[in-house]
Amino acid sequence: MSASALFGNYARSALEFDHGEGVWLVTKDGRRFLDCGSGIAVNVVGHSHPHLVEALKLQAEKLWHVSNLHKLPEQERLGARLAEATFADRVFFCNSGAEAMEAAIKTARRFHFDQGNPERFHIVTFEGAFHGRTLGTIAAGGQAKYLEGFGPKAPGFDQVPAGDLEALKSVIGPQTAAIAIEPVQGEGGIREIPTEFLRQLRSLCDDEGILLILDEIQSGVGRTGKLFAHEWAGISPDIMAIAKGIGGGFPMGACLATDAAAAGMVPGTHGTTFGGNPLAMAVGNAVLDVVLADGFLETVRSSGLVFKQKLAGLVDEHPHVFSEVRGSGLMLGIKCAAPVADVVTAARDADLLAVPAGDNVLRILPPLTINEDEIAEAVARLEKAAHALEGRLTLEGAAE
Ligand SMILES: *Cc1c(COP(=O)(O)O)cnc(C)c1O
């Protein structure tokens, strides 16, 4: 392997992409990969979407950055549109998912501080959660593999098994500020939190004066066929972190909140130099133009059904490779019977990109613009990968 000047924190494939078009990623030598990973649920409208390219180019010729010392009309506009389309009254823009979650945690703690309860700073989170890689969000996620070697875990996070209401009630006390949950665990393996549990969380929070934080960084911006996944449960949070899809590939995140929940975030309490800059806002507004257009989310729902059905057929035919399909909309997962790392590699050899997750799950997160022909092609490529793996399994079996 050639020497690299970069940190060794990623186990990268050797693929180098030159450009992208819709659901396709093309290497320098012209090999075309079907992208069912979307750069980890980011490229919601595909690669090089003309409307996004145009928005970014126009903005680039006008103004890039002025900081949050001044009023930013494009930021006001995107904030107002997000508020209009959701439960939220207030929006804070940042640059990534982890920062959006940090803002959510700080907003919840500051709310209780503002109410004269500075001792209420604990956040309850769930096993299998992923909230980012900052010191605060690894403590929130609570996964040993991400905490190890980085000093003491930041205090104020209590973790319980997902879906366990009794365990949850047992950790809630006068110290509890908020409950934070992903409505669909992404990194955890496309694990959908049951609607009933989300409703129970909402009423528990209401009864106890606790804030509900939703991490929709992966599940949001149309991924499940609603603008946000919690809409399926008919509940709304007090605070929500978003990122990934809202930038369509431009790095950005946001923390959304009700007026009441955001009340403590007065001048000086929080900030970011880059967050919400004109380039990011131009792209974010362009993403919303597409995702909020008539019929877009309906199409995501019907594409998701078609895709899931075809994947279920694939699982039936290849029980030694795949064992179960999960998820909804275009946030799908296949629990694998073979090691997921091998499935990812075999899929890549068949010119299809997908993303591994916890629980031995292969994540299928294509651009939301994927059409039925492309879905059929994706399934054909996964089939090819399954055949290759079965061939290998047979050889291994014969060698034993
Ligand atoms: C990706 C992700 C994050 C972290 O986002 P970054 O942009 O990588 O910091 C947090 N929560 C969830 C649910 C995610 O999927």
Helix content: 25-40%
Output the radius of gyration: 21 Å
CATH fourth-tier homologous superfamily of the largest domain: Type I PLP-dependent aspartate aminotransferase-like (Major domain)
Low-confidence segments: none
Write down the overall geometry: globular
Task: Round the mean pLDDT to the nearest integer and report it.
Answer: 97
CATH classification class of the largest domain: Alpha Beta
SSE string = EEEHHHEHEHHEHEEEHEEEHHEEHEEEH
Q: Quick one: how many beta strands?
A: 17
In whole angstroms, how far apart are the ends? 32 Å
The helix count comes to 12
CATH-defined architecture of the largest domain: 3-Layer(aba) Sandwich
| Structural domain tally | 2
Strand arrangement across the biggest beta sheet: 4-12-11-10-7-5-6
* Coarse structural class: alpha/beta
User: Per DSSP, what share of the residues sits in E-state strands of 2 or more residues?
Assistant: 15-25%
The description of the largest β-sheet is: 7 strands, mixed
What binds here, in terms of ligands, is:
pyridoxal-5'-phosphate
Could you please describe the fold and organization of this structure?
- With 400 residues, the protein is α/β, with parallel strands linked by helices.
- The chain has two domains: 50-291, Aspartate Aminotransferase, domain 2 (3-Layer(aba) Sandwich), CATH 3.40.640; 295-399, Aspartate Aminotransferase, domain 1, CATH 3.90.1150.10.
- It is 38% helix and 18% strand.
- The protein contains twelve helices and 17 strands.
- The strands form four sheets. It has a seven-stranded mixed sheet, with helices on both faces. Strands 1-2-3-15 form a four-stranded mixed sheet. It has a four-stranded antiparallel sheet with strand order 13-14-17-16, covered by helices on one side.
- Helix 3 packs parallel to helix 9, helix 10 packs parallel to helix 12 (372-399) and helix 11 (340-349) crosses helix 12.
- It is globular and about 70 Å long.
- The model has no long low-confidence stretch (mean pLDDT 97).
- Bound molecules: pyridoxal-5'-phosphate.
